[in-house]
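ingest -> validate -> predict -> emit
validate: passed (alphabet ok, no gaps, 272 aa)
predict: started
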Amino acid sequence: MFDISHSSSTSSEEGMRVRMDPTPSAPTIICDIDARVTAPGAEFRLLARFKAPGKRIALFGPSGSGKSLTLLALAGLLKPNLGRIEVRGRTFFDAASGVNIPARKRKIGMLFQDYALFPHLTVRDNVAFGLKPVFGPLRSARRQRVDELLELCGLTDLAGQRPDQISGGQRQRTALARALATEPDLLLLDEPFTALDHPLRERMRVELFAILQRFDLPLVMVSHNLEDVDHFAQTLVAFGHGRVLDVIDYEARRRRESARQILDPLFQAAQQ
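emit:
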């Protein structure tokens, strides 16, 4: 299984090399899964094997390389055929022992690529959706949390609007507030800036990063965009053809190399 060594070395390149031996810092995610996804006339096999430390993990690679399927497996929305998933010391899935924690019990917040907002609900009701009991209104403490998230994400004045009445950036912030409302232990982001034009992407990266720093939450982001990865990644997991090609201490490498020097060779290798 891929892992990153953080131990000291006589060579700077040796310290960056992907290794098989354990690291002194506990990984945020241990993933060792084999999953098969079928469609009429086709099958895709995902072999995702990696250990990733750090609070900001990026799954990087071209479209169709297995990044989003791995994210779904972490979230409990895709059940692997074989293997094991551990997040922050908690086993989410273990085929050998029959463990498969339901998605609703994994304490994970997820920001989907298309935001997946409910079009008939207001901004406030979208944010509050995961907190509402089956019957009756929100309790006072939960109403207060919704109010705090609306304010933090700059949505207070838009609370009564529906998704089709607000901008793309505002919809993204609504989806983020909803993901944070349940106080998750991990946040999953699937290509969170794809639907935004370039100037808005730049602004939303800064805004999202600032909000996440307030919550001090570990995150896993899927992206094939160099700028997204460069803005967020501490650890980078490179995917290609349904497999993990490399795991990199991106933050350490970035002190010595440009983003293109790191990411371009990985992207090219994934397309070979």
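The first helix runs from residue 12 to 16.
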